[in-house]
């Protein structure tokens, strides 16, 4: 009885990892450390299974027995825009989408992306008179990735507020499971996807493609205008939302470690390490869901087909068996691979763009401010995406 009671208390405490019960300002990392140590594969009272150990999460990300498609997604829900997104497709369709969407990142394509990014950083970090006490989320950590992605996919300035509104709603929908996404009522995912289907139709009519959409004309021919346009919505959301939080999370940690800021100002070769360490320590994407195609085991636990498996990337990236002193922001950390961008067939295609933006913003900030000091921070109440609603810093020129 005592063991059962202790287990119930522990499960109740771990309930805060659940969407809807999650508090961004709670010590979520301590709770995940406990979960990973005591029960690295944990079946929650609400039915989801949480996997928190690095080796298990890594293996699951590459395991073809785990589906990327939500159960029921191919039964009566074929018209859901979400199910056309690259991250929820498999097989030949996934391959065609991936080839088309990653085309701009190949060969010399990054030069065109870099030019658009440089203008946004120049306008929002270098040019303004930013000093003193500033909420950097409101000032630039959100606006820079928004402006970059809009420039790369051809969204006019007047429609940028729509992207911000949709992204906030999509983040909430994806965090709450898939009931809202597959509901009968219109949602932000469908609205956003419909906008980009029309957007692609207009681009094709004029015969001009923005830098990130070079592979879309061929994709529209092979998979259809609707599927191609819906995946621009994915690019618009995923191509900026996680980068917003990468930049904010990085400044949050560096503001609390002035010696690191000084080290970066003294040696810019450490900047890529700061970006990589942020992605590991405060992974913007915390959770990735998978569903078994057949009965299988993970660790010592057995699961049936279609059970919901939550791969906790954020917990895996703080596993002490993989990363020594994992809660420390270490610019000299050996080059062990974090899972921030996933692994396997669905590894993030936008990794190079996110790392480039993080590097450019950090370099501009190091040029601009001799020090940054923490004032206040409020984390978002989202269990899937780790990021700051506000981050107030004292910026010292």
Quaternary organisation of the protein chains? single chain
Shape label: globular
Work out the strand percent.
5-15%
Order of helices and strands: HHEEHEHHEHHHHHHHHEEEEHHEE
Q: Provide the residue-averaged pLDDT.
A: 92
CA gyration radius, whole angstroms: 21 Å
Distance between the termini: 61 Å
| Biggest β-sheet strands, sense, barrel | 5 strands, mixed
Strands in their spatial order, largest beta sheet = 1-2-8-5-3
Alpha-beta classification: alpha+beta
Number of strands: 10
Describe the protein in words:
This protein has 397 residues and is α+β, with helices and mostly antiparallel strands. It has 15 helices and ten strands. The chain has helices at residues 2-14, 28-38, 54-61, 91-102, 109-126, 136-141, 143-153, 160-175, 188-206, 216-223, 225-255, 258-266, 271-281, 313-316, 351-368; strands at 41-43, 49-51, 66-67, 132-135, 287-292, 296-298, 301-303, 309-312, 371-379, 388-396. A hairpin with a 2-residue loop joins β6 (296-298) and β7. The longest helix is centred in the middle third of the chain and has 31 residues, at 225-255. The model is unreliable at 1-5 (pLDDT under 50).
């Amino acid at each position: 009885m005592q063991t059962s009671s202790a287990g119930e208390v522990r499960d109740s405490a771990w309930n805060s990892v659940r969407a809807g019960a999650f508090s961004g300002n709670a010590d979520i990392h301590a709770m995940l450390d406990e979960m990973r140590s005591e029960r690295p594969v944990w079946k929650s009272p609400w039915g989801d299974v949480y996997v928190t150990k690095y080796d298990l999460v890594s293996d699951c990300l590459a395991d073809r027995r785990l589906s990327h498609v939500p159960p029921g997604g191919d039964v009566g829900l074929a018209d859901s825009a979400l199910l056309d997104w690259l991250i929820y497709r498999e097989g030949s369709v996934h391959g065609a989408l991936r080839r088309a969407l990653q085309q701009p990142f190949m060969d010399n394509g990054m030069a065109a992306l870099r030019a658009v990014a440089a203008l946004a950083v120049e306008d929002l970090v270098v040019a303004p008179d930013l000093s003193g006490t500033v909420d950097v989320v409101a000032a630039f950590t959100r606006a820079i990735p928004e402006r970059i992605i809009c420039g790369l996919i051809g969204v006019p300035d007047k429609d940028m507020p729509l992207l911000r509104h949709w992204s906030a709603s999509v983040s909430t929908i994806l965090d709450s499971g898939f009931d809202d996404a597959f509901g009968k009522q219109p949602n932000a995912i469908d609205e956003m996807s419909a906008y980009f289907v029309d957007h692609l139709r207009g681009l094709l009519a004029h015969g001009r493609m923005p830098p990130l959409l070079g592979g879309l004309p061929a994709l529209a021919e092979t998979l259809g205008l609707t599927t191609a346009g819906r995946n621009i919505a994915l690019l618009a959301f995923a191509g900026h939302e996680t980068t917003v939080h990468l930049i904010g999370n990085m400044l949050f940690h560096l503001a609390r470690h002035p010696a690191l800021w000084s080290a970066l100002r003294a040696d810019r070769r450490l900047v890529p390490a700061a970006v990589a360490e942020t992605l590991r320590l405060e992974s913007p994407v915390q959770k990735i869901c998978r569903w078994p195609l057949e009965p299988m085991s993970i660790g010592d636990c057995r699961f049936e087909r279609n059970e919901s498996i939550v791969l906790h990337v954020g917990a895996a990236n703080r596993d002490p068996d993989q990363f020594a002193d994992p809660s420390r922001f270490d610019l000299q950390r050996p080059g062990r691979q974090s899972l921030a961008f996933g692994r396997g067939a669905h590894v993030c295609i936008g990794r190079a763009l996110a790392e480039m933006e993080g590097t450019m913003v950090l370099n501009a900030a190091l040029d601009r401010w001799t020090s940054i000091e923490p004032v206040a921070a409020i984390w978002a109440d989202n269990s899937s995406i780790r990021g700051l609603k506000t981050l107030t810093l004292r910026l010292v020129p």
